[in-house]
Design brief:
This protein is α+β, with helices and mostly antiparallel strands and 387 residues long. The chain is built from 11 helices and 16 strands. Bound molecules: 2-acetamido-2-deoxy-beta-D-glucopyranose (NAG) (4 copies). It catalyses: an N-acylsphing-4-enine + H2O = sphing-4-enine + a fatty acid.
Length: 387
């Protein structure tokens, strides 16, 4: 019990650092020569037992994964010197794998065994994404009723700023882990996603010709991270958010059924789900508390709302002034206009600072009618906002 409390303190103190961060003046919007790195494709065969599904990816990405875990260890040691904290993670979190639902528990075991990374640390790696992700997601409808769903994934906030490099240590370590995955059953694509090797939940994905889905963090005090802390301490009702996203991508078959599952399933913590369908007008932002959906925002093209866009603030409230990626992103969308919206112009919107910032790990662009998903590893040249 004491050791679990230690671990909670570790997570809580990271969160606390969020609220005491320094102000950095905004960088003027510009579109410099922006790095566009390709992401490789892998297949995950859902017909295999869960423990075998990730073998190809992890075999390829083992070194990158070990390097990333080492960076997390270094951060933990800076917090509690002497390696004690990681010892606790190895002991305690490895036991918790049994409390995770199938198939996630088995998949995580398989990843630990192929990578050689201790099981508790693979669990930690899977939990961290639930806590330190900030993002921009949008779904736009073009004049032909075609839907484009795109996102920037910004990860690694307050996870060690490298002064020399002006970059986030964990963010840089994650970039080589970005992969595109084609999940297949009976040798047919079920869904595709952009993901980090070693992570079994989903943050970004497409069920081709049916729906597209992204998840953004919701930093909310009502419910906040209490559910995660409770889970660590042993009270386990509610679902991990990115596990729900994965289940929906894998097993839902329509926009409507995806929407119902995302709106009504009890969660461990608040979240935003950005969902696009396959018909004109089908896109929404689902703002979740742990128990229910609040004030959903739908596309409404007739009344001028031809896109929905979400960062990490409730759409009916002002964003935090230190972290306003929403206004610049919307300004850009408005300037682009519905007549000119396309995969290319959406990429440009997501390449505008500070929508693109030092935390931006990847950009993904999806088009449901074509069933396509493409993603790019990002780099934000100086001058660039840390977030
Ligand atoms: C600094 O950044 C470069 C390129 O982004 C990277 O190759 C290098 O490893 C980084 N150095 C450190 C100390 O992280
Ligand atoms: C799976 O489908 C691909 C083409 O989509 C084909 O090349 C491959 O042979 C198939 N594999 C099996 C085991 O049927
Ligand atoms: C999807 O449904 C199948 C069949 O019910 C189940 O075996 C599988 O575990 C589900 N996938 C997820 C990620 O929940
Ligand atoms: C963009 O356009 C919408 C709809 O006309 C408007 O409500 C919103 O205030 C505009 N936002 C910005 C930042 O220009």
């Amino acid at each position: 019990m004491i050791t679990k409390l230690y671990f909670c303190c570790f997570i809580l103190s990271f969160m606390f650092m969020c609220s005491s961060s320094q102000y950095v003046p905004p960088v003027s919007e510009d579109k410099l020569k922006l790095f566009k790195g390709d992401v490789s494709w892998y297949t995950v065969n859902l017909d295999l037992p869960p423990s075998k599904r990730w073998t190809d990816i992890i075999t390829d990405k083992k070194n990158e994964m070990v390097s990333m875990i080492q960076a997390i260890r270094d951060l933990a040691d800076a917090f509690v010197p002497s390696g004690k904290l990681i010892d606790l993670v190895d002991k305690d979190l490895s036991l918790m794998v049994d409390t995770l639902p199938y198939p996630f528990n088995e998949e995580i075991r398989g990843i630990a065994s192929v990578s050689g990374v201790p099981l508790g640390e693979v669990v930690l790696f899977n939990i961290f994404y639930e806590v330190f992700t900030v993002c921009t997601s949008l779904v736009a409808e073009d004049v032909n009723g075609n839907l484009i769903h795109a996102r920037n994934l910004d990860f690694g906030l307050f996870m060690g700023w490298d002064l020399k490099n002006r970059s986030w240590i964990i963010t840089e370590k994650l970039k080589p882990l970005v992969v595109n995955i084609d999940f297949r059953r009976n040798n047919q694509t079920v869904f595709k996603s952009t993901n980090f090797a070693g992570y079994v939940g989903m943050l970004t994905g497409i069920h081709p010709h049916s729906f597209t889905l992204t998840m953004n963090e919701r930093f909310s005090l009502d419910g906040g991270y209490i559910g995660i802390l409770e889970w660590i301490l042993g009270k386990r009702d509610g679902m991990w958010m990115s596990f729900l996203t994965r289940s929906v991508l894998e097993n839902a078959t329509s926009y409507e059924s995806a929407k119902a599952l995302l709106s009504d399933t009890k969660l461990l913590a608040p979240a935003y789900f950005i969902l696009g369908g396959n018909q004109p007008g089908q896109a929404c932002i689902i703002t979740r508390s742990r128990t229910h959906s609040i004030n959903p925002l739908q596309l409404d093209v007739k009344n001028g709302r031809w896109y929905v866009l979400e960062t990490n603030y409730d759409h009916w409230k002002e964003p935090l002034f230190l972290d306003d990626r929403r206004t610049p992103a919307m300004k850009c969308m408005n300037q682009t206009t519905q007549a000119d919206i396309s995969i290319k112009t959406v990429y440009d919107v997501l390449s505008t600072k500070p929508v693109l910032n030092k935390l931006t790990t990847y950009t993904t662009l999806m088009e449901v009618s074509k069933g396509t998903l493409e993603s790019y590893i990002r780099d934000c040249p100086n001058p660039c906002m840390p977030w």
